[in-house]
Design brief:
- By secondary structure, the chain is of the alpha/beta class.
- It folds into 2 domains: 66 residues, no CATH class; 203 residues, Vaccinia Virus protein VP39 (Rossmann fold, 3-Layer(aba) Sandwich), CATH 3.40.50.
- The strands form 3 sheets. A 7-stranded mixed beta sheet has the order 8-7-6-9-10-13-12, sandwiched between helices.
- Helix 2 packs across helix 3.
- The radius of gyration is 20 Å and the shape is globular.
């Protein structure tokens, strides 16, 4: 089957009638979705699982077409620095470091804080700041000499930061251009996909995936392999777009995080539990509003202008997205991002 597209840019597809998380037949939920990020041709449909609420492409690209899904203008975005781990200066950056020290044990950050009062404030206010600040370390407590694997590490900014904090780090990055950027930092990078790699069992204390799971064709098999690579008691932390969140419901086929044809499967919190618990993980999930502001702006740009980057920052947008965070206290599943924190039990 071929998605409607010019002959020079056809993408071979295959039917995917069942939920990759539950193996349940899905209902057609969204039609005529297009690639607003890189401009690949074609119109795509997403099915939704009646059991867990996940979304997936049906039909989806064949794995043999994988390279064509990531043109140069997408790869360049993966080469940009990760602003979340830049060592910014000032009171608020120091407060973030203080919170990370108090809540997660990264006490060495005291030497990086240029504001003693900010660092002290962060330590004192850690119960309030720890959730927001914790994203910078993917909510992993300090473990000196612990082994960390970042799947889909991009240019390596995150694991370079974690290396500074005492972790022994490795990364997996499928794209050779961004993998080379990470290697130039002196990092150990495996330029291959998870299913093709041969790594020893019980190797890592933690494995992180930041907006990578949605790209997997066979998530259950990938998580089975990651489980094998983790030490007993090791942590797996995954972040991915929430298919049951407020923005998906508001913008429907204009939601930025659909990103066809690259986002193959958007798991719900329930899907994570169904994928991971049978493998021997203890699973905790929640949703977050962390990327809500940017995703709202880009989704609104697509809905109103048919492209990303069309909406400018303004005070009304900032006030709206700030107030939207209160949704989580009323509707805990409404966040823009699913956060899955799993621990290997057996």
């Amino acid at each position: 089957m071929i998605i409607d597209a010019p002959m020079s840019a056809q993408i071979a597809t295959e039917d995917a009638p069942r939920c990759p998380g539950c193996d349940v037949a899905g209902d057609n939920a969204l039609r005529d979705c297009v690639d607003h990020v890189t401009g690949l041709p074609g119109r795509w449909s997403f099915s939704q699982c009646p059991s867990c609420g996940s979304l997936w492409l049906d039909p989806r690209p064949r794995e043999s077409a994988l390279e064509s899904l990531y043109p140069e203008n997408y790869k360049l975005t993966r080469a940009e620095p990760n602003a979340d781990v830049d060592l910014a200066r000032g009171f608020f950056a120091s407060a973030k470091f203080g919170a990370l020290a108090a809540a997660y044990g990264y006490h060495s950050l005291a030497t990086s804080a240029d504001s003693e009062s900010g660092f002290a404030f962060g330590r004192t206010a850690a119960p309030l700041l720890s959730r927001k600040a914790g994203y910078a370390v993917r909510y992993l407590p300090h473990q000196s000499g612990g082994r960390l694997l970042d799947v889909g590490c991009g240019n390596g900014a995150f694991i370079a930061w974690m290396q500074q904090l005492g972790w022994e780090v490795e990364g997996i990055e499928l794209d050779p251009i961004t993998a080379e950027l990470a290697q130039k930092r002196g990092l150990t990078i495996h330029c291959d996909n998870v299913e093709a790699l041969q790594l020893p069992p019980d190797r890592f204390d933690a494995i992180t995936l930041t907006h990578v799971t949605e790209h997997f064709f066979h998530p259950r098999n990938v998580f089975r392999i990651l489980h094998r690579w983790l030490k007993p008691g090791g942590a797996l932390v995954s972040f991915s777009p929430n298919p049951r969140g407020a923005l998906r419901r508001i913008f429907r086929h204009h939601w930025y995080e659909l990103d066809p044809p690259r986002h193959i499967f958007l798991p719900s919190a329930t899907a994570y539990r169904r994928l991971l618990e049978p493998l021997g993980f203890e699973v905790k999930t929640r949703t977050s509003m962390r990327p809500f502001h940017w995703m709202f702006k880009e989704s609104a740009s697509i809905a109103t202008a048919g492209r990303t980057g069309a909406m400018r920052e303004n005070i009304f947008l900032k006030l709206f997205t700030a107030s939207a965070a209160m949704l989580l206290s009323i509707l805990p599943d409404s966040g823009e991002e699913v956060i899955c924190h799993a621990r290997k039990q057996r």
